[in-house]
Write a structure and sequence with these properties.
Strand content: 15-25%
Distance between the termini: 64 Å
Helix content: 25-40%
CATH architecture of the largest domain: Alpha/alpha barrel
Largest sheet: 8 strands, antiparallel
Strand order of the largest sheet: 9-10-11-12-19-16-15-14
Radius of gyration: 26 Å
Structural class: alpha+beta
Oligomer: single chain
CATH superfamily of the largest domain: Chondroitin AC/alginate lyase
Number of helices: 18
Number of strands: 19
Number of domains: 2
């Protein structure tokens, strides 16, 4: 019976047709939810397993039933990838992915194994190591050519000989464990007994044992640390389970009980409170974990059924503007990252419309490969997973994204669109609180796209080490008086909002983003501004007909005469500024800013090419436009600005 169950599971996994129990597969002809606000994924009809109630015996039974053969991580058959060698019946995109797997491995073969490098408090070669192992082990599984397995062995033994993996920053250790787990599992039959013993010893001494030595706080956290670390730890424990079954049972059981905390922030509709950048990191690793557990243990113990989680593919698409850039709040860059993660979510839910950008990129790269014979990275470092999780030939589906997206949750945001054409406008609005993990003083800030151009910008994060190496900053101290907020990109001076006097935002304040009309959202910012105001509301409206956005601020209880500075960071060039109007130009397009209230302002332009402070990074090509309005004698102030393409 167990053999039949695993055989059925393998067919579902390899065919990329895993069916979700919590969200029905939509019809390909489903119409876009034009005016809908995103709602939570419907509860599963079948009651899900509660991970917190999983017992040690249940984990023990799953491990006992697990085949003692390799591979078992992601795939549980040696033919899972080798079946793609014969390209008869493959579509062009599948042939491209096969070619990409070989080229990635050949690129590694032509370079030296990386040495151990540490940058500040972080291991800086962990990601490189894992990517190289994935490339080589994928090629070994795909083509069966011994040279790939032999080189993967060399890479692993080299990493095992490193003095340590910087255990005080366990994210790097987890990455090393993940890489070694995949290499050990996928190249198992090509490794000798001594090789296996060396790898097992390094995993134990430099990986597993460091969990207790470091008294690792991440074991019970709700952020990306828990996701990344438990992924690496459990992948290694499962890959080596026959070597130490008790250790595998203990670690998996602890992970099952701890990980629900990392799924809670996805509620109610799948938003990731640490922002799109960390969505790719944390969510990407938790998808790896789920896929590994399902392939090896036949279950994820109900983790994927957490409210909102399977709907998170909507979040990352809703927060991608018409410019192609992320709404990059918190510690996040604006460029949308390539990842295999979204292919998994599409396979679970049937939401192939979430893959519109991925399909387009894969088609374009395939066409170029057919012309040049060279492949481009359009899937991230694990193209084999796209082969396994994707549905081929590619079939596009109409977008079902809403024109107004509200994330709700612990760190709420909103995204408004005028439509889905290339020239459509996109308005991203940030709520929440500054002190959330990786947060900025950006509550009430926004980004704005029109005509395929990002006009109102978020500068994103600054390289962590560039700040930490100075030794004077408590970068991840989120308290009100933390030196974190002295960094220009992280404080309120760089965000698109109103600064009252010289006051900073209150880190413990909170602002929800609530609907105030079909294409309007509003934030109550009183707790964000704190004692310097009595009331503060910011209202955003996107006119779908004209594609113009209006931002209105209403204040009361401000000390009379206090300057309120309205500001916006842009990469557009100021073409003209006169009275209450300013014109920006970029890429042959224009944006017209019209200050409706007050009627007369004095524009100021601060070029950001040079660091604002000695510790800040440069922001080449960016500038901050602003004007100041004094609070009236009765302590009120109203500012209304329209941004029109």
């Amino acid at each position: 019976m167990q053999i039949r169950i695993y055989a059925l599971f393998a067919v579902l996994l390899l065919g990329g047709c895993t069916v979700s129990t919590s969200s029905p597969t939509p019809s390909a002809s489903a119409k876009p939810a034009v005016d809908a606000t995103t709602t939570a994924t419907p509860e599963a009809k079948k009651k899900s397993q509660d991970p917190r109630k999983v017992t040690a015996q249940q984990v023990r039974d799953r491990l006992a039933a697990m085949p003692k053969t390799h591979p078992r991580l992601f795939i549980n058959s040696s033919s899972a990838l080798s079946r793609f060698r014969d390209d008869a019946g493959l579509c062009d995109e599948q042939r491209f992915l096969v070619a990409r797997i070989r080229q990635a491995a050949d690129d590694v073969m032509g370079s030296k194994a990386p040495p151990r490098r540490q940058t500040g408090r972080r291991l800086s070669t962990g990601n490189t190591f894992t990517s190289r192992v994935i490339a080589l082990s994928s090629a070994w599984q795909m083509f069966g050519e011994r040279r790939y397995a032999d080189r993967c062995r060399e890479e692993m033994l080299s990493a095992c000989a490193w003095s340590d993996w910087v255990p005080t920053h366990y994210l790097g250790v987890a990455e090393m464990l993940l890489g070694l787990a995949i290499g050990y599992d996928w190249c198992y039959d090509a490794l000798g007994p001594d090789d296996r013993a060396t790898i097992l010893a390094a995993m134990k001494d430099k990986g597993f044992d460091e969990i207790e030595r470091q008294r690792s706080w991440w074991r019970k956290t709700n952020n990306n640390w828990g996701q990344v670390c438990w992924n690496g730890v459990t992948a290694a424990a499962i890959a080596t389970a026959e070597d130490d079954p008790a250790r595998a049972e203990t670690l998996i059981l602890e992970a099952v009980h701890a990980l629900p905390r990392t799924f809670e922030p996805y509620a109610p509709v799948g938003a990731y409170p640490e922002g799109p950048g960390y969505w790719g990191y944390g969510t990407g690793r938790i998808v790896y974990l789920l896929a590994i557990w399902r392939s090896a243990l036949g279950t994820d113990f109900g983790l994927a059924d957490a409210p909102g989680f399977l709907h998170t593919g909507e979040y990352i698409n809703a927060l991608t503007g018409t410019s192609g850039f992320y709404f990059n709040y918190s510690d996040c860059g604006r460029s949308r990252r390539i990842a295999d993660t979204l292919w998994w979510f599409a396979a679970q839910t049937g939401r192939t419309d979430w893959l519109a950008r991925e399909h387009a990129a894969l088609r374009a790269a395939t066409a170029k490969w057919k012309e040049t014979g060279k492949t481009e990275d359009v899937t991230g470092r694990f193209p084999a997973l796209v082969l396994l999780w994707g549905r081929f030939p590619l079939v596009d589906a109409p977008s079902r994204l809403p024109l107004r997206y509200l994330s709700h949750g612990e760190n709420p945001v909103a995204a408004l669109r005028s439509g889905f054409t290339p020239d459509a406008s996109f308005l991203g609005v940030k709520g929440g609180m500054p002190k959330y993990n990786h947060g900025h003083m950006d509550v009430g800030s926004f980004v704005f796209d029109a005509d395929g151009v990002r006009w109102a910008e978020d500068l994103g994060s600054q390289n962590y080490h560039s700040i930490e190496k100075l030794g004077t900053f408590t970068l991840f101290n989120m308290k009100q008086n933390s030196s974190r907020w002295d960094v220009f990109r992280l404080g309120n001076e760089s965000h698109n909002l109103v600064v009252v006097g010289t006051n900073r935002q209150m880190v413990a304040g909170f602002a929800n983003v609530v609907p105030a009309g079909l294409a309007t959202v509003q934030l109550d910012l009183a707790s964000i501004y704190g004692p310097c105001v009595k009331a503060a509301k910011r209202t955003f409206t996107l006119d779908r007909a004209t594609r113009a956005a209006t931002v209105r601020d209403d204040f009361s209880g401000v000390a009379p005469g206090t300057p309120l500075r309205w500001q916006m960071v842009t990469s557009g060039t100021v073409e003209s500024s006169e009275g209450n109007r300013l014109v920006l130009a970029q890429k042959g397009k224009r944006l017209f800013l019209h200050v409706e209230t007050p009627k007369q302002v004095n524009w100021d332009v601060l070029e950001l090419d040079k660091p604002v402070n000695p510790w800040d990074c440069t922001n080449k090509g960016f500038r901050r436009i602003s004007f100041a309005v004094p609070a009236a004698a009765d302590g009120t102030a109203t500012i209304s600005v329209t941004l029109a393409p």
